[in-house]
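Hi D.,

Good news: the full-assembly prediction came through. Inputs first.
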Amino acid sequence: MSTRYLLLAEGFSGDPHYGKTMRGVLRYRRDDVVAILDSTRAGETEDGVPVVGTVEDALPLGPTTALVGVATQGGRFPPAWIDLLRRCIANRLDVENGLHVFLSDDPELSALAAERGVELRDLRRPPADLSTATGANLDVDATIVLTVGSDCAIGKMTVSLELDLEARQRGIESVFVPTGQTGMVIAGWGIAVDAVVADFIAGAAERLVVEGRERGGELLWVEGQGSLLHPVYSGVTLGLYHGSVPHLLVLCHEAGRTEIEGAGGGPHPIPPLRELVDLHERLALPARPARVACIALNTRALSESEARAAIAAAEAETGLPADDPVRFGAEKLVDAVLAAGP
Amino acid sequence: MSTRYLLLAEGFSGDPHYGKTMRGVLRYRRDDVVAILDSTRAGETEDGVPVVGTVEDALPLGPTTALVGVATQGGRFPPAWIDLLRRCIANRLDVENGLHVFLSDDPELSALAAERGVELRDLRRPPADLSTATGANLDVDATIVLTVGSDCAIGKMTVSLELDLEARQRGIESVFVPTGQTGMVIAGWGIAVDAVVADFIAGAAERLVVEGRERGGELLWVEGQGSLLHPVYSGVTLGLYHGSVPHLLVLCHEAGRTEIEGAGGGPHPIPPLRELVDLHERLALPARPARVACIALNTRALSESEARAAIAAAEAETGLPADDPVRFGAEKLVDAVLAAGP
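Then the structure:
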């Protein structure tokens, strides 16, 4: 039986930042989603998917699996969620969880899952045999493209997925390489690099590009994480950068955003795009120089004419091709990547 | 009873890189070390400490605690070590372990430890309540100085310890902030930031500078880790940098070293010092600009005249004060830090 998801997004389904797992799955696995659970919006729909108020209300729709669709900062469970998860398990739903807290470590939930014969899958649980990077990444015979960004939650995963799709439609042996829980749900493999032991970040990224090649990829689109100047997540960003040894970078930015969001103690201004391009290129390993091939702008907050103007401005500032691949298609950015390298 | 260490360094006691935990403890807690265990050098001495071939040979010297003094890449235990640890426990020694593999997770060793009434202390086990950084680091009312470096294992911890000692001798309320297992053994507190969940690196660093202030520090010397362009460990380096929010950096370099060591797939050349200064300053958070205050050179491989020439060359290249604080004293670099800021 194929997976049919109930997305758990209690209290968060309308929030563009904290609901990003839900949004990603809705966009790329829409056909496998039967309902969204959010009691604050019960009876509404989201992208045509019914929003329900309780687990029991979702059951007639035939879900097989409850997916934790909320990515709270630090990955902790709000206490009220434990009740919700208990009800999912009691109703014989498997649970996929992308948070840093592992459901299978909870004795009560594990016991209940065993009793009901359901599986608790902790997507962020790292492979047990992970270790430090070895240098095998530099031997991967593929063009490696990493999305990087001016902030978190601005669409790096989406850009990687859209560019991969466009490349595959052109007949290229292209593979999306998932590095976070949402990408893993969408692609069905991967490692959440933000959840590994800190010393093993580059090792995890290395393993992912090696596996991307083994899966047939000649063009690998590595899902980026965080941002180089993000006060909270920059370590993951740089470890992923160096461990995935990209030849090319796609710099993602939300048009109009001037400050990093969700970090305390600020203000945390975002530097100009041309400085970000330079900073990223200078931080490449000498053993694997990397260039920024193009700029992916997220223009969701703008009108179409404003979006076109923002794209033109980004091109003028950086001298690189720019576009919003979600809004205007991925052709231009894929062209830019293919023209750039490796 | 105070701790009396038997340093376990089987096969590694003569190796300057892999024996760095041992060397740090010998330098800064010499009086608490009764013996070194390394069967390949039994009967010799190291810094005046007897080297023994077996645990049993060390017992007449009265150790209370065996310390794993080897930092292998990736932190795994060589299999032969398990036997050695079993013998330590059987002989009623506590064990302190700085590797990524936790002794207390081993059912057999744990059972044996319980039976013998000894403690297994895994120094790299992160605090259970760690999470992401909050911004509280920016409120720490102290001058924060982080050591950074052109490579691993070139003496960042030693430089932090020497500069802290010099500052305390001048009557400054100065505190060394340990971020790795050796620093933790020396100072008796800290978090091994390379062992936390990757998303929590900056959170761990933040907690450490907050605690450094709580311990009375008005001048905090944060022990650096890794290197920004290290293919394996750079993620930890940047997360520690952004999470500890230093006002000032001390750039550490081994004179004459031109390549990063211990990383596969190279060559991995080290950029010129002036480029490293610039790269580090550009990577500071906009909310906490940081300047490199001075250069700490490790000149152990050079003659005294060569060392003086290397120091002069580093000053000429960077325009910053430089010295080898281990060889020539920490006065000059502490002067440079006090003159620089915050």
